[in-house]
Amino acid sequence: MNIQWYPGHMTKAKRMMQEDIKLIDIVIELLDARAPLSSKNPDIDNLATNKSRMVILNKADMADARKTAKWEEYFKAKGFFVLSMDSRKNSGMKPVSDTIREACKEKIARDRKRGIINRPIRAMIVGIPNVGKSTFINSYAKKSCTKVGNKPGVTKGKQWIRIGKDVELLDTPGILWPKFDDQEIGLRLAYIGSINDEILTKSELALKFIDFLKINYCNALTDRYNIDIDIQNSENFEILKQIAVARLCLLKGNEPDLDKAAAILFDDFRSGRLGRMTLEEIPE
Ligand code: G4P
Q1: What's the CATH fold of domain 9-175?
Q2: Residue ranges of the chain that CATH labels 3.40.50.300
Q3: Which long-range contacts (CB under 8 A, 24 or more apart) does 223-226 make?
Q4: Does ligand 1 have an atom closer than 6 angstroms to the CB of 132?
Q5: Which residue puts its alpha carbon closest to atom 9 of ligand 1?
Q6: Which Pfam families does the record match to this protein (predicted)?
Q7: What is the pLDDT of residues 234-284, one digit of tens each?
Q8: ∠ CA(183), CA(219), CA(222), 5° rounding?
């Protein structure tokens, strides 16, 4: 098995992001709280030099809360301003503006000294596919949506959303490309749906995922699918077959449809129905 992936359109996305970053004060990077390091593209560190940095551990509603708290500490220790959240809820957005203000405190003070007051902080969302960038922007914008429109000269063609009196958010996120030299990272990215399932067949991927579940969340499958099988001592292939049978995923001749069962498994994981899970431990 070999996973490697670099979509060609990312070159254009990177160029656009380099341009956009020049216009902003703070880069807000969305990570998947279930796989915070795997969903982080370290290249953003070079693109965002001299900018304030904030990390949002998104989809925290589906991650293991205790582990998310540790990941928050991990990123704070690296110098990031950090929040974890469920971006689908636009009720929890006040801490976002508060944290942006806190992260840009020095810049605001510098502006004041130079006589610039009330210039809004400009922020931009970045992240790899499927971490929730659009969902976040919609929720944050809904709170107080005023499109500021184009700023002639400086920001030609850019749309800014005014949030409250002191934050402006670029309405299109910067799409980062998933990056991995390590197969384990590639697998986590496939589990969370940030890289295409087509890299492996769905059932091959599911067999790997069952390995992870056996070690970390061994009751999740029996609880969800109501299957009567000794998870620890069964072959992954057998387990997937049982899921197929339990969910009536059958081919002609009543053969279990493993790809369909795998699709159900990932659908359930990606929407939190398998329970709250974190795929990744903090490195030593
Ligand atoms: P992207 O722009 O970064 O590519 O991600 P996008 O906002 O499209 O979100 C990808 C999927 O993740 C969407 O689900 C979205 O609803 C879900 N999502 C985003 N943020 C959160 C979160 O904080 N918690 C949870 N539980 N889910 C989140 P989808 O099934 O692809 O679409 P939809 O049917 O929900 O519209």
Answers
A1: Rossmann fold (3.40.50)
A2: 9-175
A3: 223/275, 224/268, 224/273, 224/274, 224/275
A4: yes
A5: 132
A6: MMR_HSR1
A7: 999 999 999 999 999 999 999 999 999 999 999 999 999 999 999 999 998
A8: 105
- Range 139-164 average pLDDT: 67
Query: What are the tokens at 197?
Result: 């399932």
Burial class (CB in 10 A: 0-12, 13-18, 19+), 55: buried
Cα separation, 182 vs 215, whole angstroms = 20
Distance 67 CA to ligand 1 centre (A): 21
ipTM of the shown complex: 0.97
- Between CA 93 and CA 104 the distance in angstroms is 17
Is the domain spanning 201-270 CATH 1.10.1580.10? The answer is yes
Atom of ligand 1 nearest to the CA of 271: 26
Mutate which of 135, 196, 274, 277 for ligand 1 pocket (most atoms within 8 A of beta carbon): 135
Q: Look up residue 148 and give its two tokens.
A: 């500021």
Tokens at 216, concatenated: 């970390």
130 lines ligand 1 (CB under 6 A): yes
Distance CA 157, CA 27 (A): 20
Give the sign of the dihedral formed by CA 130, CA 136, CA 142, CA 148: negative
**Bridge partners of 81?**
54
